[in-house]
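User: Could you go from structure to sequence for me? I need the amino acid at each position, not a summary. Structure tokens:
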């Protein structure tokens, strides 16, 4: 009877050893899978950081370019809204005291001044809207109201692009935070 009891204990312990071996193998597999997932997440995080760095640089360049464009537009509007420009517009109306040649020279000089400012801004920012404004100013039949309308339209478009870029930046930041949180949780679980 003692032999049977001992034999039962041996079998029970052998069964327990087998179960522990299987559990150990499963845990080792789980650990390996977790390590692989962690490496993949680290690689994803690195790619995300590089992508965000690139986007941040692009964003800073866009902000700088937009600031330059807005400054050039503000200067152009200032020139067009200047008292001298108003006097010029008044002089273009037919009157007995105004000479046609004097008005033409004055209008040409104001147009040339505005054109110079817009072209300088267009060279810096390479924005097609500024090229269009410069083209309108350089034409013989350019009317300042049309140029101002083009400038206003360009400002509205720049603001829309700014809002879109702000949304993209928020998404990038949120993705980066999410990947970082996932990495930390995986590191803690390992």
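Assistant: Here is the amino acid at each position, in order:
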């Amino acid at each position: 009877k003692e032999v049977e009891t001992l034999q039962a204990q041996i079998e029970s312990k052998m069964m327990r050893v087998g179960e522990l071996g299987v559990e150990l193998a499963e845990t080792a597999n789980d650990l390996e899978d977790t390590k692989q997932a962690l490496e993949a997440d680290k690689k994803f995080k690195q790619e995300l950081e590089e992508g965000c760095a690139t986007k941040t640089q692009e964003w800073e360049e866009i902000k700088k370019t937009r600031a330059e464009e807005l400054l050039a537009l503000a200067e152009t509007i200032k020139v067009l809204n200047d008292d001298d420009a108003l006097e010029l517009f008044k002089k273009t109306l037919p009157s007995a005291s105004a000479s046609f040649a004097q008005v033409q020279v004055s209008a040409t000089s104001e147009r040339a001044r505005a054109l110079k400012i817009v072209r300088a801004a267009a060279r810096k920012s390479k924005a097609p809207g500024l090229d269009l404004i410069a083209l309108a100013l350089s034409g013989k039949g350019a009317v300042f109201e049309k140029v101002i309308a083009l400038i206003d339209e360009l400002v509205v478009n720049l603001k829309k692009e700014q809002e879109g870029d702000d949304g993209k930046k928020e998404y990038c930041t949120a993705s980066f935070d999410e990947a970082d949180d996932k990495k930390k949780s995986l590191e803690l679980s390992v």
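One structural detail worth keeping in mind: The two ends are 48 Å apart (CA to CA).
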